[in-house]
From TrEMBL:
Domain Starch synthase catalytic, chain residue ranges per copy: 5-240
Root EC class: transferase
Naturally occurring in which organism (per UniProt): Bradyrhizobium guangdongense
Reactions mediated catalytically: [(1->4)-alpha-D-glucosyl](n) + ADP-alpha-D-glucose = [(1->4)-alpha-D-glucosyl](n+1) + ADP + H(+)
EC number(s) reported in the record: 2.4.1.21
Role played: Synthesizes alpha-1,4-glucan chains using ADP-glucose.
Annotated protein name in UniProt: Glycogen synthase
Keyword Lyase: no
Gene Ontology molecular-function annotations: alpha-1,4-glucan glucosyltransferase (ADP-glucose donor) activity; alpha-1,4-glucan glucosyltransferase (UDP-glucose donor) activity
UniProt cross-references to CDD domains, sorted A to Z: GT5_Glycogen_synthase_DULL1-like (cd03791)
Protein keywords: Glycogen biosynthesis, Glycosyltransferase, Transferase
Pathway the protein takes part in: Glycan biosynthesis; glycogen biosynthesis
HAMAP family found in the cross-reference section: Glycogen_synth
Amino acid sequence: MTPVRVLAVASEVYPIIKTGGLADVAGALPIALKAHGVEMRTLMPGYPDVMRRLAGAAELRSWPDYFGGSGRLLAGSHDGLDLFVLDVPHLYARPGNPYVTAEGVDWPDNGVRFAALSRVAADIGRGLVPAFVPDVVHAHDWQGGLAPAYLHYDGGPRPGTVMTIHNMAYQGKFDRSLASAIGLPSHATFDVHGLEYFGGISFLKAGLQLADRITTVSPTYAHEIQSDEGGMGLGGLLRERSSVLSGILNGIDVEVWNPQTDPHIAYRFSSEDLAFRAANKAVLQQQFNLDSSDEAPLLGVISRLSWQKGLDLLLEAIPTILDQRMQLALLGSGDRDLQDRYQAAARANPGRIGVTIGYDEVLAHLIQAGSDALLVPSRFEPCGLTQLCALRYGAIPIVSRVGGLEDTIVDIGEAGREATGFKFAPVTADALAGSLRKANAAFHDKAAWRRLQRSGLATDVSWRNRAGEYAALYRGLMASRRA
């Protein structure tokens, strides 16, 4: 097995800092790749949480002026992850969310902040750290999208490049005047085969146009984003580059998400003995002030509250939840109007609907362990991770037929395969309500429900096979560049 060195570039990495599924992937994939002969180090920004956890990291390089202020490149490790950290306080030493202000508005210098990250990634790719010269630079989402662009426009020998799309909706769009400030040639901003994007520039578009290989996080999403609608302005580019585009399903960290050892749930249990799920359900009902009843199916939601996630459709389906004598426990935050409407629904239906606004990792684990079913009614979903966790914990997924939800859940009506949940299409409130009614009927058939649970629990949701696909991609890229 040929050893491979890969530099990953990511704006968030679990368990250090997380706002979404990107962090889970960036945290789990490097560890899973070790079994496949791939040494991956991850470059990330030096946010306050990162600097606290990497106290004592070694300084590799310093600059008196790095994109407008002093900066350092550090090397350290955390929880089995080998990390490079770009410590540039004037860009990253800010509290809270890494992308937005306390008011929820994008930081006005986000273009410079993540160009700086991509610039140093390209420099590492060209040998800035002699002890680690990567064969491949793997950029995640728009925040790393300029790494392939810098490597391209610098000219000369370079490593192979991979660009992974976690969500097409976030494209890193900026005014073309930014190019000179971040050290890119002006002609790149006027070239349709470069950064130019509807009169401005897009970091995501740059990565998709200039990387050697493109991946996204499920096969179905790889197909969807080649359409005009699913591509969100970049479908034509992706159709042109379809020969280098592939979909590789995400996995989850099965050590973190393991009901036998999970420190965050009230009662641990195994796939062979689900008796303690009922005890977790009772604790979850208490947490959300829901009536205690084993006969009421408890629906869990762990989600960003947004149009993409279909959480407005779930509001429309609340009459069905009430008519079917189901309960709802929702954890999430996002759109202010959706937050207000869910809180109003909880006030109007005490004991039946419980809502917690915000994100709480401990509570997320309890929802997986105690819910009878987990709802993911997304309008589009590149992969989705919560439904994979649900399979691992014996909560039955109820999902829309899009993206990775289509690829990871087997509907109860599909022939020839062991069903693991319920899927609905089209993505409407009526179709969701129909799926809720089906799930309610199955819940009251204890044998049918247990079959769904057993089949879900037997599903491999780990990174083991997925990491192998990435390893094969890297090796294939290296071979093609040598040819």
